[in-house]
Design goal:
Layout lengths: L10 H9 L7 E5 L9 E4 L9 E6 L26 E15 L4 E15 L23
Parallel strand pairs: 3-5
Antiparallel strand pairs: 1-2, 1-4, 2-3, 4-5
Amino acid sequence: MGSGNLGGPTVEERNAKIASEPTGDFFYGRRYFVEKTRFWGYVRQPRQSWNRGKLVVLREDKKHAPDRMSENGPSGQRYAFDNNFEYRLRGYYTGAQAYDPNSNQFLPEFMLTGYEVVDRQPGWLFRPDDRYNRYRITMFPR
């Protein structure tokens, strides 16, 4: 696969960061934007590896996603401006599955109730050789 295009820490640094992160009544989420899809990104519990994260569709009845903006706005002020940002998410899994027709997947639905940015440049998600392509799904837990 070659080297990735997201940069970031070494595997050891990432593992140490996850092992020492705060725990509580919240999740960690990583925004993952791919054109024409409607999933939001990956969500995991504190101190769990991203490989255990789930690709989710956000339900926004209680709180809008951070990037809920026009898809045609100016740079930095449009939908998905926050690709690869890491968040602390408050909310819960509804138990429902949501269908994303453009990726042809049934994904868990996560009811968002709050969020805060943890890191705007966290680097790779699953492995240092992750390659991001905004036009196709290239990053899966493995």
